[in-house]
Amino acid sequence: MVVDLRYGERASMYSFFSTFKLSGVAVSAGVQKPAPSRFYVTRYPSDDEDNTRATTPPPPETTHHRHVHLNTGDGGSRNLYVPSVASPQKRPRSPSPQHQWNTEPLPDVHSHPFIDPAYQHEMDLKDCDLPKRKRTKSDTPLLNWIPDIDVFLKEILRLEGRGDYAQDKTCNFCTIEAPEYRCEDCFGGKLYCKKCILLLHSRNPLHHIEKWNTMFFERTSLKSMGLRVQLGHSVRDACTNPLSSYNNTFTVLDLTGIHQIHLDYCACQTAQPRHIQLLRASWYPSTTSNPRTAATFRLLEHFQLLTFESKASGFALYNTLSRATDNTGTVPPPDRYPSFMRMVREWRHIKLLKRAGRAHNPQGPGPSSSTQGDCAVICPACPHPGRNIPDDWAERDDK
Ligand SMILES: [Zn+2]
Ligand SMILES: [Zn+2]
Ligand SMILES: [Zn+2]
Ligand SMILES: [Zn+2]
Predict the structure, then answer these.
(1) Where are the beta strands (DSSP E) in the chain?
(2) ipTM metric
(3) In the chain, fewer beta carbons within 10 Å around the N or the C end?
(4) Mind listing the pLDDT tens digit for each residue in 83-109?
């Protein structure tokens, strides 16, 4: 096979890969029946900004070609099957009849302007073997939605008010007190009295609460309404010796925003240290001595997964949480960004140790008992006696 690389052009992995595929098809077409190509052409441009092949004319071919002979084959004629524009002196190449292109119609970028190129590429790879089908109304959901824009807008605006519960005279839980509060995060949007909404949120202390002030719903908080979160005991199990957090306030970073709460540690005789009490509530403490901030495990887990899939920074996520808390900028939440990044770093290290099985080490999980390479991912292709080769491989005759 002959691979042609052009000087001065840094070929991306994508174009290099497609060159390989193309040459494979072309060679087989010249000798025997062409193999069905699994390569699928997409219309979106390459994300390699250095790859200017699509937009600028290629330079003259006089000195800009290098031929790398990887395999000269049977010594017969050598074929050059690299898609490139021919030089003006040569006969223009015919539109490559030997290539087997997949002609399945792709989503049009003009009718699907918001499609993520990565998603489209995944769909292309999935759908290239599917038979063609008749297009139905559900293929154009955006067009179907346009007549309903007014309805959607009105329904969303309706939720700004009390909606179905505007006529309620009493709380939907105790049916005694006046209904004034609702939760933005609980399902249903029912209105409750203050006592009941506090009771209903003893298990969900990080929900956003709104109060109906006869004109509109205004943001309030479970903290300002008097909710106290007790650690070290099960929910609704009172502690006889509660110890308030520093300055009677505590910051919790969660997926839903940055929350200020009243937090009580347990100071009973059997109480655990404060950071342990937080960990047992699935809240990651920012420090080990007298923490003032914690992040929920689900936030740390979420951010780790987010970084697997996106280029979002910790700062971007923190600012998103800040906006979720107050998007007007008039009541900015306390700045806990350095604490957040420290917790993220610690979290990743803990996860690394957990996945490497360090917690089950008889000598203890800590750094003192570990040796170099303990947390490395074992290569599945390398020979490991007892796993992918026999234990006695060295003594066996057929090795
Ligand atoms: Zn009530
Ligand atoms: Zn709620
Ligand atoms: Zn639940
Ligand atoms: Zn207690």
Answers:
(1) 2-6, 65-69, 181-183, 209-212, 217-220, 228-230, 242-244, 250-254, 257-266, 283-285, 293-296
(2) 0.90
(3) C
(4) 445 555 555 555 555 666 666 666 565
